[in-house]
């Protein structure tokens, strides 16, 4: 088990892509460009129960395990511990987002309590994977290559978060922009995980 834990970050990075794709196969007419990832687990969706089982719950565990690995390593620095705490936070909020589904209509003007919890947990997830790479960028403890790649991933996340807001307002293709925004965060996790175990 201990030999498995260091690779949980890499596994999570691949799992989330595969999990979303697999869940979408059981949702007739699902559009990756027009719909949010969370709509797979939304109230009343064909995959409301399936999506958290193959996505949120195992992913949350993988994030928590990787964060624990970073924070508890024998030679962990304060920055490693901080990044580990952010990854654990990301994992805990992934569980919350799975347990509290979003409403069927992402544009509803009166979201339910569960949807509000889901949304705020999503915000914390976003922030946690902004803080973590930012720590790497501004810390001199990590290789220059990792710091540059972390900065590029942060830039991509910020840019597509901005375009996501416009796409959501226009009700056009927010799913596309969400995947790219979060995709840069997951790319950062993959890159950081690789450096952590290399």
UniProtKB/TrEMBL annotation:
It comes from the Bacteria. Keywords: Membrane, Transmembrane, Transmembrane helix. The chain crosses the membrane at residues 6-27, 57-75, 81-102, 123-142, 148-168, 180-197. This is DUF998 domain-containing protein. It comes from Oceanospirillum sediminis. The lineage of its organism: Bacteria, Pseudomonadati, Pseudomonadota, Gammaproteobacteria, Oceanospirillales.
